[in-house]
Amino acid sequence: MRLSLNQIRLDGGTQPRTSLNVECVARYERDMREGVQFDPIEVVYDGAEYWCWDGFHRCNAARRAGLQDIEANITQGTLDDAQWFSVGANKRHGLPRSNADKMQAVCVALRHPMGAELSDGAIAQHVGVSQPFVSKVRRSVAATQNGFVSPARTGLDGRTINTAKIGKTRRRDPHAPSRHMAARVQKPVRAPNSMDKMTTLSMPHNPVMGARTLIEVFDADYLRILADEISSHLKGIEACA
Q1: What is the DSSP string of 102-170?
Q2: Bridge partners (DSSP) listed for residue 72
Q3: pLDDT tens by residue, 78-89
Q4: pLDDT of res. 197
Q5: Could you count the other beta carbons within 10 Å of the beta carbon of residue 210?
Q6: H helices of 177-219, where?
Q7: Is the Cβ–Cβ distance between 105 and 127 less than 8 Å?
Q8: pTM of the full structure
Q9: Residues 6+ apart with CB under 8 A from 98
């Protein structure tokens, strides 16, 4: 059915991305003015409000195109349902998600009541990312927010595992380097030229000195790409804070 744009709520924490893509909105607006038909947006109706969880670019483009309403698929539910649905939006269609978008979606899923006790594999399946990616985000968030994640996990097979016990019985290899040494010596990193051999660096604990070491070793192009990747990673962590 068609819903008035004034009825649709976009402020319920159901935006699955870190930000809207301005170029995408402009392209959609142009297509709408030319009469192109878009797929319906997805909303949850809680009996009082219509919460959009998939279709933010289309809603904004429709407003800019001067439209009064938009086609929508409506599901009965709650705002919590809309937030949970939103983290799995765009995993198979729509504008491709950035790493920061995926990280934000995983962070929301980890905090959400429906995902708080799910395993990394189950969350990865719902969000549409890899299990190692979810594990990486979980560790990053847990490091900045002490213990917000329960150690109990429910896997895809329905079994519950206490992840706090995982690895407890493993013995440390007496020949392995100490954690102190591991912190000082970094594993091989990618050189500026993909054809070059891997370069081993000894990084100081001082981040300023570490940055200067990288500047001395790598060229501007490599540093620019490195800075972009670090910036994208930090935006994802900040979105979880």
Answers
A1: HHHHHHHHHHSTTTTTB-HHHHHHHHTS-HHHHHHHHHHHHHHSTT-S-SEEE-TTS-EEEGGGTTTTP
A2: 41
A3: 999 999 999 998
A4: 46
A5: 14
A6: 179-184, 207-217
A7: yes
A8: 0.59
A9: 17, 18, 232
* DSSP class of 188: P
Place of tokens 């219509």: 50
At CA 215, angle to CA 183 and CA 206, rounded to 5?
Answer: 35
User: Per residue in 181-210, pLDDT tens?
Assistant: 444 444 444 444 443 444 555 566 677 767
Q: Please, what sign has the CA dihedral across residues 173, 177, 182, 187? A: negative
Is 141:237 a contact under the CB 8 Å cutoff? yes
Alpha-carbon Rg for the chain, nearest whole angstrom, is 22
Query: Rounded to an integer, what distance in angstroms lies between the CA atom of residue 29 and that of residue 33?
Result: 6
- Within 8 A by CB and 6+ apart from 226, the residues are 214, 218
